Amino acid sequence: MSGMERFAGRVAVVTGASSGIGAQIAEDLVRAGMVVVGVARRLERLQALAAKLAGQPGRLEPVQGDVSTTEGVKRVFKWVDDNLGGISVLVNNAAIAAFTPVQDQDPADIERLVSTNFTAVMVGCTLGVTSMKKHGIKDGHIINVNSIAGHRIFSVSEIGSCVAYASTKHATVAMTKGLRADLQALKPAGYKIRVTSLSPGAVYTEMLPDAFAKMVPEKEMILQAKDVSNAALFALGSPPAVEITELTIQPTGEFM
Length: 256
Ligand SMILES: NC(=O)c1ccc[n+]([C@@H]2O[C@H](COP(=O)([O-])OP(=O)(O)OC[C@H]3O[C@@H](n4cnc5c(N)ncnc54)[C@H](OP(=O)(O)O)[C@@H]3O)[C@@H](O)[C@H]2O)c1
What we know:
Belongs to the short-chain dehydrogenases/reductases (SDR) family. By secondary structure, the protein is an alpha/beta fold. The protein contains 7 helices and 9 strands, in the order E-H-E-H-E-H-E-H-E-E-E-H-E-H-H-E.
């Protein structure tokens, strides 16, 4: 069976599901029939999304969690294992932005940035694969929501330096590629876990600074969260023998 139908009734975990891209992906997975664990700190946002999606083929399970600590990430995965069982789809999406030049960063901010944008993704991948192995889920799929900032360093004077943020996204690109290589070791046991790095250009969300939106000449030159979610579901819904390893999606004509 191919397409999203094979994931119906199965468990997905989406971090950062309280707004923007994560909220849209969580919504679209629920509409596709999945049981989606939506993770974020703002529980009331998750609860509102769950209420909005009542009556859809799947459901949203709001789980309050802070992925900026390893303990926080572990708590989320333990809750899923205790309450729902194995994970078929993991979308590591939660992140924070940073626009301060590296030399001016507060060390505590650097630590928070790296732990939220990178450590949580790597630990999430580890615990996600552990869950798949424990529950014999051989066709699991991990999507790491990345950025074009994971592929090149650029400077946008209107909003400040993106270097610290881009560093975490570059690290995520490297780790995602490496994870795919490491997962080859599970092939003899029949595991065909797919891994996708999804790299959007600018998207209209709470993360996008107003100054950036103002400097773009046409409104269409910024993506909508729905565009990114469509790309995620394209990767997920591809036939099991097709692995979309890197998917870059930018507004047509984006200057970056
Ligand atoms: N917007 C863009 O232009 C753009 C472009 C390229 C890539 N991206 C990537 O897309 C992904 C989603 O970003 P977005 O644009 O949708 O931003 P957003 O609307 O600000 O959403 C970020 C999400 O991450 C969650 N989050 C942040 N820190 C967290 C923590 N410590 N623990 C748990 N959840 C946390 C937030 O929830 P709470 O605050 O409720 O915890 C929120 O749900 C990110 O990986 C981002 O780097 C965005």
